[in-house]
Structure formats: C-alpha cells, structure tokens
Amino acid sequence: MTSSPGFYLVSLGCPKNLVDSEGMATLLRRAGYLPADRPEEADLLIVNTCGFIAPAREESQAVLRELAQARRRGQKIIAAGCYAQRSPDELAAAIPGLDGLLGTRRWMEIVSLARRLVPTPPHVAEGRGEVLRAAVQGSSAYLKVADGCRRSCAFCAIPLIKGTAVSRPLEAILADARRLAERGVQEIILIAQDTSDYGFDLGLRDGLALLLDELVAAVPQVPWIRVMYAFPGRVTAHLIETLARHPQILPYIDIPLQHAHPAVLRRMRRPSDVEEMRRTIRRLRAALPDVAIRTTFLVGFPGETEEEFQTLLDFVAEMEFDRAGVFTYSHEDGTPAYALPDDVPEEVKAERRERLMELQQGISLRKNQALIGRRLDVLVEGVGDGLSVGRSYRDAPEIDGLVLVPTELPVGEIVPVRITAALEYDLVGELAAGRGRRQRAPASPQ
Questions:
Q1: How far apart are CA 398 and CA 406, in angstroms?
Q2: Looking at the domain 134-369, which fold is it?
Q3: Could you tell me the strand order of the sheet in which 224-227 lies?
Q4: In which region does residue 354 sit, left (phi positive, over 0), alpha (psi from -120 to 50) or beta (all else)?
Q5: Dmax of the chain from CA atoms?
C-alpha cells in the first residue's frame, strides 16, 4: 500500500493569515496528506505569504527561495496568501519553479491544487465537516469573525488583497467558539481587519456588541475573550457598555489610531476628529478603570512635517496608552497614497519612529511599575529551567508583554500572580495565594 504524501506549511504575517493556514492544513489532513515537521520530510511545500508591505514581501520571497533551493527531486512548492493574491506575476518571477499560486480568496481550493501536484493514494477517502475558522496556539485561539475591509485608508493595501468586508454568519462563529471551548481553550481572541465593523454587511447595527453578547452566552466556560482591531469612531457607547458588562471579556482593546494630527489623518483617509478619539478613550477608562488600551501609529506618511509629528508626540504623552506599535510608512503601489510623493526621507522616518518608541517605553515602564504589589491572573504558556512565562489580561499574544514567574507552573492554566518587579514591557511576579479566577481578573490589591 502506498504511503500518504506529506505537507510542510509555513505561515507568515498576521494572525488572520494563521487562521487561513490552519484551514488549509485541516483540509489537507482530511484529504489524506500528512503534516511534516521538517521540509525535507514533505512532498508538498506551502508558504502562506504576507504581501502587506515591502518588508513582508521580501520575507515571503526569502522563505520561498530557501525552500526552492533546498528542495529535493519531486517536491512541489505552492505560494499561497496575500502576496500570491496581490502580485502573482511578481512572485512567480522572483521565485522560478513555483508549482502553484493560491490567493487569499481561494485558499479552500488547496486540496484540488495539491492533488494535481502530488496525488494521494487511491485508497484515501476525503474527510468531511466544517473547517474551523480559528487558529489554536497553546491555550489561546484566534477566531476570525470577518475578512476583507470596506475602509479606504490611503496607505493600506488590504482592500486590494482581501476585497471588501464580508462578515461570517453569527451562528458559524458561535459554532466555532463552542468547538474551541470543547478543546479546553482558555482564551478566544476575536480578529478581523476591523472587528468593530462586524455585521455591517449583514444589516446589523453594533454587530460586534451583539456578537459579544451571544458569544458570552455560548461559551461561558471560556475564561477570557479578547477583542482586537477596532476602528476609531466605531467604538460606540453600546460596545463599551458591553465590554464592561461581561466579566469574561477582558478589559483590553486594540484601536489602531495611526496618527493624531487632523491634517495627516485626512491625508491618510482616516477619522480625523482627534477630540472624539480623546472622548472615546475617556469613556473606555471610565467604564473599565483597569482597561489596557493598545494602539498603532504610522510615522513618515507623505507630507508629515516636524510640527505634525510633534503633535503626535504630544498626544501620546497626554493619553498614555498601555501599548503602542510604531511603524514607518511604506510607499505601496496600488494604494491611494501612492499618488502622493514619498517625501519624508527614510532616515527621518526611522528617527521619528525611534523618538516615538522611546516616549512610549517610558510610559509603559511607569504603567508597569504601578502594578508592583498588585495581583494579576496569568495564563501560563511555557515553563523551563525553573521559570514560567505567561500573559495577563493586558497582553495579547506575540505583540505585548509577558509575565515571568521564577517557578514552574502548570501550562495552560490561569494562576494568580503578585507582581514584584517591572520592566519596560514585561512584569515579574510570584505565585500568589488563592486560585486564578475563571473570569476577568483586573489588577487588584493582594
């Protein structure tokens, strides 16, 4: 009997890409393909690429090139994902010998493409069932609620790659959440290009708030629910009330603001009412006193003057965000901003990013120091050499900080930790008395 072929899959880019990668892997396993731990063990090599900005495309090319150069006779290579969707000809020219391209809107066709390249044995029957639109990592899971984006931000290529926003049916999301709960997942992280736009295309008003109400009822056994990628101006009073009402929903929200000078925001085609941004943040902090607010800023956008950048610095110093990512503008062909002159020198972009990050580091350190002596519940994600590493409600996976505890704790459990020291991004603590709460645990005195 002929053995089943194997596949090796690399996922690049954001968690939304990771969900699609998990979907492809599920379909391949059902079709009789076996996952391989190393590329040399596989018959099919797949890279789910990122094509958002130039550095991401360069990384995708590098990974594909490395696999192509090392592949043995008979191995086939597929480039999937955003880069394959956005610039298939460019990618094919950069990596001679690619055997297949599969864009973001066609990832569910991976099996038919794979069978043309590496057929499965005749005795293998394809499995059936819905594909989970989530990616499980340890005790956490990214759950995709929509794909695409209907915004027209001048710098962003997502609508070119993904198309307009398409929300998943509410029942499909809840069904996936129940399956995740059955697996013992401790944290569900809602993701989309814009989670706060969920349900607009379905005719729902305040669809994210409705989804959260339904989700809490559907999976009461999941201790943590986290919301990522909310659009400025879409964090409504109803949404804030919903976040505050449910202990399962972590007091954490990610609102990518991108800038704080109205003229820059208008050029970016972003909401430019900075006073409304301030009001939204005040409402969040009033309703959720322990809320951790994460944001993202883009420096060096065409026409950004030193005065406009100083306005951004002043805004960040004033608002004191818990977390902030800072990126330099990338001039992307096909985006509305491409018609503007890329007139901020690269060295100025880098210098501005460094100044803003330095400011944010000081804010982050002060906020972390304020937690010393307080108790946080921590989801333990790894242990070794007498040390445990985990995250509190203030920390989304991979992009925020960690909590370090100098003892080995059970992985996958939420435990109470008293904070004893603070670093710029991470915290250090010791196991506290009592048990970790199954639901939201805002910072509180020991």
A1: 21
A2: pyruvate-formate lyase- activating enzyme (3.80.30)
A3: 134-137, 140-144, 187-191, 224-227, 249-254, 292-299, 323-328
A4: alpha
A5: 72
Which amino acid is located at 360 in the chain?
Q
AA identity, residue 320: E
For 163-304, strand residue ranges (E) read 166-167, 187-191, 224-227, 249-254, 292-299
Closest CA to 393 of 188, 190, 224: 224
Residue 179 has pLDDT above 80, yes or no: yes
Q: What is the mean pLDDT of residues 67-79?
A: 92
| Domain-wise residue ranges, the chain | 6-117, 134-369, 374-445
SS3 376: strand
**Phi, psi torsion values for 194, nearest 5 degrees:** -150, 95
At residue 106 the predicted structure's pLDDT band, cuts being 50, 70 and 90, is: confident
Contact 416, 375 (CB under 8 A): yes
Distance CA 138, CA 140 (A): 6
* The pLDDT value given to residue 127: 55
Q: SS3 of 436, please?
A: coil
| Superfamily of domain covering 6-117 | Methylthiotransferase, N-terminal domain (3.40.50.12160)
How far apart CA 395 and CA 378 sit, in angstroms, is 10
Alpha helices, H only, 246-374? 262-268, 274-287, 306-319, 346-369
